[in-house]
Amino acid sequence: MGVLSCMKYLMFIFNVLVFAAGTCLAGVGVWVAVDPAGFQDIVAAKPVLSAGAYLLLAVGIALSLLGFLGCCGALRRSRPLLLVFFILVSLIFVTQLVGAALFLVHWKQIQPEVFLSELRRNYRGDEGAEVFSTAWNTLMVTFSCCGVLGPEDFGNGSRFQELHPGTPWPRACCARDGLLQAGELLGWEQCQERSPGYIHEQGCFSTFGRTLQKYVSVPGTCSLAVLGIEIFAMFFAFCLYYNFD
After folding, report:
1. DSSP state for residue 1 in the 8-state scheme
2. Which strand (E) or helix (H) includes residue 178?
3. Model pTM?
């Protein structure tokens, strides 16, 4: 009985954490969906971000309900609730495995053309006050990169060239004496002439790709931890289900 009681309270504590995490995710989803501060303007493809916000909201609500079911099933010694909890966690577990497999198969197939099209159509330059241009300027300065593929992204036909004819690329592509945008340019004329050391030749797409490959172990470890927790949750629910009257 002592082991069973310990498992019951561990099950309760685990599901309280799941409920809290689900509530937080739902709150973030609501915040992004309401968009109080122009958050969606960071990405020009607003429907994608909006869909992500509602997906986050749905996942948060689902986790909250799952945590609530687990808490009630453990405290009330309810076999039907524990059975429902076990089935739902099993479905989530299988879905995550399938999603991880699909991600590993298709993540290298993501092409830069979509990002390049958005950049050429919406980027306004260093003085652009809207969130899209400001976000791109910050990214290019912080990661020492230029455009999606390189400086040529700002050439003829781009919104940037329409607003700044004769300027080959924005100052955000130029090397600075610091990482912050407040850092002084090493040389604007040399940057315009594409002198080595004065301009970032590398595109941001490949830069981000290398960064993701470098730190892919972090989300991978977190994902494995989540899967491990789900396995323990299913095990606890299974044991309690067969030991409760």
Report:
1. -
2. none
3. 0.55
**122-127 mean pLDDT:** 89
Give the chain's count of helices (H) and strands (E): 9, 0
Would you call 71 exposed, middle or buried from its count of C-beta atoms within 10 A (0-12, 13-18, 19+)? Answer: buried
CB atoms under 10 Å from CB of 51, counted, come to: 12
**Distance between CA atoms of 4 and 10, rounded to whole angstroms?**
10
| Cβ-contact 147, 169 below 8 angstroms | yes
Residue in this structure with the two tokens 């986050």, named with its chain if needed: 56
Q: 128-166 pLDDT, tens per residue?
A: 778 888 889 988 988 889 999 999 999 888 999 999 998
pLDDT number for residue 227: 75
CA distance 89 to 157: 51
Tokens of 82: 């524990």
